[in-house]
Amino acid sequence: MNPRTLSWLVLFFAVLIWSAINPAERGTWWLEVLPALAGLALLVYTRKSFPLTPLCYWLILVHSVILMVGGHYTYAEVPIGEWLEQLVGGSRNNYDKLGHLAQGFVPAIIAREIMIRKDVVRGRGWLSYLVISIVLAISAFYELIEWWAALLSKDASDSFLGTQGYIWDTQSDMLYALVGASAALLLLSKLHNRQIKALS
Q1: Taking the mean position of all CA atoms in its chain, how far away is CA 158?
Q2: Any idea where the domains of the chain sit in the sequence?
Q3: Full-model pTM
Q4: Going residue by residue through the chain (200 aa), what tens digit of pLDDT does each one get?
């Protein structure tokens, strides 16, 4: 195992273990951390058949950490969100918006990599359009998962949804995912292209 992979795994499991120790709500913890655990399983499964660029792996780790921190505290109670709320004078803890920004930013790079390396689309304009469409589809589907979870478990629904009384929470979540995807394409495409080229 190379040092980069080892570092990645150490960081992932260190945060996971910390997150699992006395979380605010165990049911919510599982709901929030499950995507990170599923992502880890998928990365292990595809490591040899379809290794990703270092950029993808590190972005996935960052997104996993965001999920695990949110799972530990519940999104409405994460201290950094409360600090930001006091700093900008807001009326809610916006840590969940960081999660939805990452939900656009990280899948955009993953989708971009798969489409380029699998030669799904040749035109760069179409590539960006399809990446953003995929991200918005993922975001919308996640909002459906939140709704289904709320219907199935009233106890965990408020913490999992994290709406904090904001009636436009679902729509703003998807907007943040769109902003994240657009920012990822604008900021990281050149670096990503170089790393993809290095893999081939």
Answers
A1: 20
A2: 3-199
A3: 0.87
A4: 789 999 999 999 999 999 999 999 998 899 899 999 999 999 999 999 999 999 999 999 999 999 999 999 988 889 887 776 666 566 677 888 889 999 999 999 999 999 999 999 877 789 999 999 999 999 999 888 877 777 776 555 454 455 455 667 788 889 999 999 999 999 999 999 999 999 97
